[in-house]
Amino acid sequence: MLEAFAAAVDAVLASGETLHGWAARTPNARPLRGRDVAYATVLDGAPVVVRHSRHGGLLAPITQDLFLAPTRAPHELDVAIRLRAAGVATPEIVAYATYTVMPGIERADVVTREVAGRELTRPEEAEPLIQAMSRAGAVHPDLNMRNVLVDRDTAYVLDIDTVYFLRAGDHRIDQRNRARLMRSARRLGR
């Protein structure tokens, strides 16, 4: 199946389009809110989300979508594979593309399978996810109510490009992830 995605991505890129630009122009594109607009669309017959990588935080107005090569995309793919192997639910990354702006500076788009879930409404819904992340040793510095989708009884963690790993079982992992999620819940009044 990933080979089919590769062929479809190659066709988009060969046309001179970026993946994000292509997704925005597909007839069935649905804009999704976040740091920037991502698009839910269909790639090779499968529902996907195409996101253009952007910086957050205080320097975001300056750095915007520019990253030192090789961008965060390869790291995000590695994290996704590691999380999924450890039993942490996260959307499967099916492709990414980087675009050279100048030597050493790039932009990137990431394509994931779409999870047809809803935004987290109560922090307790993420408890199994928090525990799985702790077992995996994963710390998510931007874990918030909007970065978790719930599909039936499974909570999926999103925006994993800044996730880092400590020794599994380290008590700081659970504390950091839980504190970050609770801060977001308080800010949103949940």
Kindly describe this structure.
The N and C termini lie far apart (39 Å). The strands form 3 sheets. Strands 1, 2, 3, 4, 5 and 6 form a 6-stranded antiparallel β-sheet that branches. The model has no long low-confidence stretch (mean pLDDT 93). The chain is 34% helix and 27% strand. A hairpin with a 2-residue loop joins strand 2 and strand 3. The protein folds into 2 domains: 112 residues, 2-Layer Sandwich (Phosphorylase Kinase, domain 1); 70 residues, Transferase(Phosphotransferase), domain 1 (Orthogonal Bundle), CATH 1.10.510.10. It is of the alpha+beta class and 190 residues long.
What radius of gyration results from the CA coordinates? Answer: 17 Å
Order of helices and strands: HHEEEHEHEEEHEEEEH
Task: Using the coordinates shown, work out and report the CATH topology of the largest domain.
Answer: Phosphorylase Kinase, domain 1
- Helical percentage: 25-40%
pLDDT average, as an integer?
93
Cα-to-Cα separation, first versus last residue: 39 Å
- Biggest sheet architecture: 6 strands, antiparallel
Total DSSP helices: 6
Shape, please? globular
CATH class of the largest domain, named Alpha Beta
Number of strands: 11
Question: What percent strand?
Answer: 25-35%
Number of structural units classed as domains:
2
CATH architecture of the largest domain: 2-Layer Sandwich
Low-confidence stretches: none
- Pairing-aware structural class of the strands and helices? alpha+beta
